[in-house]
Amino acid sequence: MKRLWTPAWIARHVAMVVLVVGFLGLGWWQVNRAAEGNTLSFGYAIEWPVFAGFVIFVWWREVRHTLRDRPEVPTSPATPPAAGPEPAADVPGVRRPVRVSRGPAHPVDAPEDGDLAAYNHYLTWLNANPGARPGDYPG
């Protein structure tokens, strides 16, 4: 329970109380406006308590999450960890395979496009001359 009394958690508790009281107060204000004849306020009279309920839900969920996460306390510090394979947690997750076309992009029997051949020659020259600028291309 000491984990719920840190400065960060005290701020969360205060924020929860302020928000719930504020939302319920706004809901009561809308009930009074609806009683005076403002029909639109009936919807808001329902909406504000729902917001207050949501704040309570999120606060409760965070409290439970914090109480479940217990820091590991070693039972005996003199016991060395067991030698064995690396833990499975270090293994990256399964990734989606990358689909790569294994066949040629154009049919092998087709005549070569002149513009494509010139562009490929230009790219080959740039790759062979890494310090060159594109304006230095002799072609």
UniProtKB/TrEMBL annotation:
Low complexity: bias regions: 85-105
TM segment ranges: 9-29, 41-60
Keywords, in A-Z order: Membrane, Transmembrane, Transmembrane helix
Region: Disordered, residue numbers: 69-113
Protein name according to UniProt: DNA-binding transcriptional regulator of glucitol operon
Organism: Micromonospora mirobrigensis
High-level lineage: Bacteria, Bacillati, Actinomycetota, Actinomycetes, Micromonosporales
